[in-house]
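FAQ

Q: What does a record look like?
A: Structure on top, sequence underneath. For example:
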């Protein structure tokens, strides 16, 4: 149990509640965890369930990924688990971690350690420790600095993590300055856990994050990206993103986000782009399919597109003579900025392409006005969106944040109408696979020419005809092609 000399008041009822949940969760994993604990004890070593696994057990959300800590060195860990586990991997062994799988559980077993950053280094220096207390004090937050010794199930909580868990607050085991100096990425982790767990961050931790934000510059782009993704995919990303912006961390990680806090004056009014963006993100999340549906759950591409869809506005803002503010072509500028930022954060080429495409297309619906969409416009909308069409539907709907109920309903009704038109045309024409009525080989045969750039130009012309007019009979398509070719020759 927590230390008796704790300076924080104990919410007794909440503690007993989380303890009951923990017992239930630990009983579920006991057969595997206890068996492993006995094997380490028989080999002369200690083993404890630790960190996020203990925290999640106390929160009633423990999954099948279990984290352990031990005084055994990696080579000794391998000797113990190899005859026992269903599979073993050594990807993290340089950092003292051995992974294995047993009875459907994925286990990571890490030797007691301490790690710290050199002020000029991007990689932590790892050294092994000799006690679990030494291991726990180096961890990021008190709620992650609890352990359960196995197989005895002795609860170890030297930093009052259980009470902080019950109070739903993030503190560091030592001073936040020491913790963030050891690993600056922990500042982003604070924002991520606030978003994932819906916890508050202690004031002294927020202060340290603000004062030490510049230390994040030594952390690799890949580690920052992975932490940002976890935050964005969490249940409460708005909370974590606000913390990144308010502490100045976002200025280093995603500077386009705080740049959305555009100043306005009494003569030039416009929507608060920063608040609008966070609301669009919330509304996009609400449109995601449930986790239990195929392809459901958090959608990183959609969420990134919602977060970045208006980042071109600061660069395109213009003050008009009538007092309005315009952002002409901000979607084009924003798409370019999106590609640049995501590339710097080392996202995959596919993710960069998809998110920037959604940013580029997010205003396309409004470009057609409120009139009736032609078949040609519908075909082009579907063609340009491609496999992103469903996400574009969600992003476009999410982008409506007006408080004017009549205007919001009109926009929703208009988009309902567009989706009905798409469905009808898809049924008639197979829009998802729009192709010209003549393929490349047929074009060469009709025009009696060989492969070359002229075939590509002819193909593009026939595709434009297909989008404009819909499907044509072969004779009509051949006649159109010959007419175009004659114009080219003249």
């Amino acid at each position: 149990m927590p230390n008796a000399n704790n300076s924080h008041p104990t919410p007794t009822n909440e503690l007993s509640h989380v303890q009951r949940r923990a017992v239930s969760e630990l009983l579920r994993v006991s057969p595997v965890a206890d068996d492993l604990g006995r094997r380490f004890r028989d080999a002369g070593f200690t083993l404890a369930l630790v960190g996020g696994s203990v925290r999640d057990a106390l929160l009633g959300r423990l999954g099948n990924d279990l984290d352990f800590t031990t005084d055994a060195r990696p080579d000794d860990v391998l000797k113990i688990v190899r005859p026992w586990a269903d599979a073993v991997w050594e990807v993290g062994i340089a950092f003292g971690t051995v992974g294995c799988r047993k009875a459907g559980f994925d286990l990571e077993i890490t030797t007691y350690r301490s790690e710290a950053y050199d002020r000029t280094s991007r990689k932590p220096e790892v050294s092994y420790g000799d006690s679990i207390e030494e291991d726990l004090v180096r961890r990021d937050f008190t709620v992650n600095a609890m352990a359960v010794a196995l197989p005895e199930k002795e609860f170890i909580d030297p930093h009052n993590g259980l009470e902080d868990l019950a109070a739903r607050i993030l503190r560091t085991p030592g001073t936040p300055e020491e913790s963030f100096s050891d690993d600056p990425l922990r500042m982003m982790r604070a924002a991520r856990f606030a978003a994932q767990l819906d916890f508050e961050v202690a004031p002294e931790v927020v202060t340290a994050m603000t004062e030490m934000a510049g230390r994040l510059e030594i952390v690799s782009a890949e580690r920052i990206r992975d932490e940002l993704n976890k935050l964005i995919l969490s249940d409460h990303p708005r909370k974590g993103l606000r913390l990144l912006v308010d502490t100045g961390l976002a200025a280093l990680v995603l500077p386009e986000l705080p740049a959305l806090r555009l100043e306005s004056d009494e003569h030039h009014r416009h929507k608060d782009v920063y608040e609008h963006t966070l609301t669009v993100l919330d509304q996009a999340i609400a449109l995601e399919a449930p986790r239990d549906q195929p392809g459901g759950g958090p959608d990183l591409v959609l969420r990134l597109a919602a977060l970045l869809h208006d980042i071109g506005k600061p660069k395109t803002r213009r003050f008009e003579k009538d007092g309005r503010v315009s952002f002409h072509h901000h979607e084009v500028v924003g798409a370019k900025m999106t590609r640049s930022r995501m590339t710097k954060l080392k996202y995959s080429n596919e993710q960069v392409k998809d998110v920037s495409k959604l940013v580029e297309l997010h205003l396309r619906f409004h470009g057609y006005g409120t009139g009736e969409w032609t078949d040609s416009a519908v075909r082009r909308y579907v063609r340009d969106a491609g496999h992103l069409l469903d996400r574009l539907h969600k992003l476009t709907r999410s982008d409506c944040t007006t408080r004017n109920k009549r205007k919001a309903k009109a926009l929703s009704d208009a988009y309902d109408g567009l989706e009905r038109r798409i469905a009808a045309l898809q049924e008639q024409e197979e829009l998802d696979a729009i192709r010209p009525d003549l393929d490349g080989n047929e074009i060469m045969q009709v025009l009696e020419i060989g492969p070359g750039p002229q075939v590509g130009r002819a193909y593009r012309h026939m595709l434009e005809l297909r989008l404009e007019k819909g499907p044509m009979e072969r004779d009509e398509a051949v006649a159109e092609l010959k007419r175009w070719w004659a114009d080219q020759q003249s």
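Q: Is there anything notable about this one?
A: Residues 1-12 have pLDDT under 50 and may be disordered.
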